[in-house]
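Re-run with default settings, no changes from the original entry. Doing this only to confirm the output is reproducible before filing.
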Amino acid sequence: MVSRVIPVDRFDLVIFGATGDLANRKILPGLFRRFCAGQIPDGSRIIGAARSEMTPEEFRDQTAAAIAEFGGKHSGDEESLKGFLTLLDYVPIDARGEDGWDALKSKVRPEEINAFYFSVAPALFGDLAERLHKRGIAGKDARIVVEKPFGRDLASAKALNATLAAYFDETQIYRIDHYLGKETVQNLMAVRFANILFEPLWNSQFVDHVQITVAETVGVGGRGSYYDKSGAMRDMVQNHLMQLLCLIAMEPPYHFDPDAVRDEKLKVIRALQPVVPADMVRGQYQASKDAPGYVEDAENPDSKTESYIAMKCHIANWRWVNTPFYLRTGKRLRARTSEIAITFKEPPHLIFDEAEGEWRENVLVIRLQPNEGMNLKMMIKEPGPGGMRLVQVPLDMSFAEALGEEADITDAYERLIMDVIRGNQTLFMRGDEVEAAWAWTDPIIEGWEERGDKPQPYDSGSSGPDDALMLMHRDGRRWREIRE
């Protein structure tokens, strides 16, 4: 199967923070891959803007080096690279001053689609929005893309929303969460809403529980000072895991339309019940013989910030009453993996004797990384003579294997940036959605801060704190093994 590539219309994309890590690792290599795929039309422009004083030619050289390292299978395509670099331009700019803005205005063509990517610290969002508006660079149809973190609590998120709303309409603001751009995440919606197979079972009558896991093997080294002010709750749960939970739990929207989808996600967030302390475990990774511990990475020996969190959540609506959602995420764990596992209940009456095999639950596993795909565990008869012996087997669909090597599994940033150019906000967070997520998150954080809770230590390379295991065991369940 060969994926179809639908070109976008011609555009001018300005990347603020174009010399930064995100731009060099993800944004520019992703745009290059879209160019190689034929999705970016001739005449489009990609304009870098940053504090660094450099010429357009120096910016092209820097971009070429980034593509050589992060461009993937197309990185050695010299002809395509040459063509892509002709689209690039650069303007040194002062986000909080006046330098560079006239030069930028002269390069942005108002008759084309205009998009502005804020790949900078959130503290600069307001300054950039104000100058784009007051200088007349961004028109009424322009789009701005803002990266997380979108606030660090409800108050700051509201203030940031208000700042952006002073210069741009909500329809122009694209709050990016790269998890929503993953192929498997979008396939989750297709599996639910394009097939009759699962949706009738997608409720508390048939689903025993849901597990959402995002595990990383790396620590916080290199960004320890930032992370120590954030922690796993703010950095991962409030946005990435919350979005995954919403897509699992949402009602079918009336149409695959940006506001219709986001309306249903918002209902899920507002239906989330408060999490009591007994249903939550926080952890902090310890030093190993090969790597420092969290407090060394954060350079704060008294840190009470969590690098791991596990919790049990409940959604107060008819569809999910009494079905727990278990969320966990952490640094320096056993393997790098992200997955959603929907575990179904056992049949109401088992007709097979124990001697014929141990019954095991049906589980639908959606793998986000690595090896994107889906896996459905089912009970079948073990092949061969000798009676009815049951065995659990996976019906496995790896996208790379099922769709063939020709299938173009795009990076999340590639897809989301192209959606910005198309003006499609379906996979981006709306302002009220962000605020609702913080309204649920804030009391949890305030609670452990008031109690003075300390994270529990856990070994690097493990599955997390022991109490996280007990969070499941006391309910008669167990976490899925963390493995690639």
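Residues 180-473 form a domain with the Dihydrodipicolinate Reductase; domain 2 fold (CATH 3.30.360.10). Residues 431-451 form the longest helix (21 residues).
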